[in-house]
């Protein structure tokens, strides 16, 4: 899989039924099945968010939900960060986060970005400038921390 990733960003209402199905399928595959975590993925934030999708041919290689300020946190946020298991170790996750940060600024303006990160990914997010901003907490049985990106690089 050496072809490049094509990025699209759409509001909930712009998503086709096929795109919605595929992105929910990927989120379920990773967050529910792979991480063995029963939780309510559909939380009524999708309708208020933008959806960044990275496609490699017909494969949804990577996805994030870009959430405006005041929905998940006081600040804008990036959530549901997921890379297809078929794309692991390809650099798609790094591309996804860089594109997500850029897209947040384009969509919502300059400002801090807050995320709820799985603790084991702390170093990954720190490599983009995010800093830990909370104590460790359990969410759906998985250790998380809040992290904040105050300014872009």
Written account of the structure:
The protein has 153 residues and is of the alpha+beta class. The chain has a domain at 6-110: Gcn5-related N-acetyltransferase (GNAT) (Aminopeptidase, 3-Layer(aba) Sandwich), CATH 3.40.630.30. Helices cover 26% and strands 32% of the residues. The chain has helices spanning 17-34, 92-108, 122-126, and strands at 6-11, 50-56, 59-67, 76-83, 113-118, 131-132, 137-139, 142-149. Strands 1, 2, 3, 4, 5, 6, 7 and 8 form an eight-stranded mixed β-sheet that branches. The chain starts with 5 loop residues before the first strand and ends with a strand. The model has no long low-confidence stretch (mean pLDDT 93).
Uncertain stretches of 5 or more adjacent residues = none
CATH homologous superfamily assignment of the domain at 6-110: Gcn5-related N-acetyltransferase (GNAT)
Terminal-residue CA separation: 30 Å
**CATH class category name of the domain at 6-110:** Alpha Beta
Q: Characterize the main sheet.
A: 8 strands, mixed
Molecular shape: globular
* Count of alpha/pi helices: 3
Q: Averaged pLDDT, please?
A: 93
Can you tell me the CATH architecture of the domain at 6-110? Answer: 3-Layer(aba) Sandwich
Total strands: 8
Radius of gyration: 15 Å
CATH topology of the domain at 6-110: Aminopeptidase
Report the portion of residues in β strands: 25-35%
Class per helix and strand makeup: alpha+beta
Helical fraction: 25-40%
| Strand/helix succession | EHEEEHEHEEE
């Amino acid at each position: 899989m050496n072809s490049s990733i094509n990025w699209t960003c759409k509001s909930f209402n712009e998503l086709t039924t096929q795109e919605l199905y595929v992105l929910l399928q990927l989120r379920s595959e990773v967050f529910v099945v792979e991480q063995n975590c029963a939780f309510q993925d559909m939380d009524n934030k999708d309708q208020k968010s933008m959806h960044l999708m990275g496609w490699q041919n017909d494969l949804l290689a990577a996805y994030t939900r870009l959430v405006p300020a005041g929905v998940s946190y006081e600040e804008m946020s990036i959530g549901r960060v997921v890379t297809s298991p078929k794309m692991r170790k390809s650099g798609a996750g790094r591309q996804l986060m860089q594109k997500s940060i850029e897209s947040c600024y384009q969509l919502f303006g300059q400002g801090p970005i807050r995320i709820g990160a799985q603790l084991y990914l702390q170093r990954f997010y720190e490599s983009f400038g995010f800093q830990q901003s909370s104590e460790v907490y359990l969410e759906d049985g998985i250790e998380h921390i809040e992290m904040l990106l105050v300014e872009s690089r």
